[in-house]
Amino acid sequence: MFLVEKDDTVKIRRIEHKMGIKSSPTCEIQYNNTPCTLIGKRRFGLMRYSMNLMNGARLAVAAQALGIAEAAWREADRYSKERIQFGKPIRVLPAVGRLLLGMRVDLEATRALLAETASWVDLWKVYEKAVGDGGDTVDPAARARLKACATLAETMTPMVKYCSTEMGNRVCYQSMQVHGGVGYMKEFNIERLFRDVRITNIYEGTSQLQVVAAIGKLLNRSLDPLLAEWSAAEYPADMATEKATLIELTSTFQKAVDALKAQPNRDKVDYYACDLVDQAVWLVCSWLLLRDTNVLESKKSIARSYVASIAPRLRAAAGIVTESNAVPLDAIGALLA
Ligand SMILES: Cc1cc2nc3c(=O)[nH]c(=O)nc-3n(C[C@H](O)[C@H](O)[C@H](O)COP(=O)(O)OP(=O)(O)OC[C@H]3O[C@@H](n4cnc5c(N)ncnc54)[C@H](O)[C@@H]3O)c2cc1C
Prior knowledge:
Elements: E1 2-3, E2 10-15, E3 27-31, E4 37-38, H1 45-82, E5 84-85, E6 88-89, H2 94-131, H3 140-179, H4 189-196, H5 207-219, H6 224-232, H7 240-261, H8 266-292, H9 299-323, H10 327-335
Antiparallel strand pairs: 1-4, 2-3, 5-6
Bound molecules: flavin-adenine dinucleotide (FAD).
């Protein structure tokens, strides 16, 4: 990592013409034999400093996508009250209600995951500072806690970047759908939000790269301590069905993890990794929403709705991972050769 002073050797090639986020100028910076000063330790630039920078940025982009999605949801919520079709506001039509419910529940689940991830990142930083360079004088319990926080932060950061930015794109798509034809027009905010959100699952590492970043940790059962804690916790009596479902889904997910870990074919692991990360996201979000029902009555319908929607999808994704069918990989070889 280098410090560069701007001089005539540094060229801004041009300001890019982008699809969205137009108030943020983007350019390529070209260095032509530019003198520079090394920052920090030699060989630490990429893996230590840049990865640190990038993990912070991934959390920020997850929050950016969540914010855009929240704005898109509010546009859809408002428009669905104002737009009358067949003598009633479109929001009372089950097909539109389905879109609105999906958006609302997706947003709540993602917000819970973002807050949880941010808290593990914060704890990691606190323990890092506390343990510091203390050498042998450091309490072994604090050192163990530092390691546990780091593992969870490093697992959940790519998970939330993946989950939030894909959710943001989905919610903006659904919001435009709720608007119908007018949503496609520049006069309506959703047209801009739809364009702005598109970059979030590309920059600071594409969604595919987030899956690559998360899968190693997940295959080492990095979520097990949290899943065990949540499975053992108490929840309101009227959420017992959801708790039982989540205990079952936790076991289903863990079996899928073990199946993919045992898979000797590396291409299959890479191909089916996203199905495993999806399950991890759904499961963690479900437990977090259930946990929220301990403090807020209004979270119950959100948690019920989310668990009901992800349960069959998680079982199917676990089946896909466990089977790790070779057909799509063979098809890639045959069709894309
Ligand atoms: C508006 C904007 C602002 C940006 N700002 C910055 C900035 O400030 N600083 C900066 O450094 N960069 C910046 N970028 C660059 C941005 O981070 C990259 O474009 C992004 O990370 C994707 O990298 P790439 O374009 O090289 O795509 P590629 O790496 O070429 O990827 C192309 C496709 O291949 C897939 N792919 C590639 N490798 C793998 C793999 N190992 N496994 C699975 N799939 C893979 C990707 O998912 C993608 O679908 C910016 C880009 C844009 C558009």
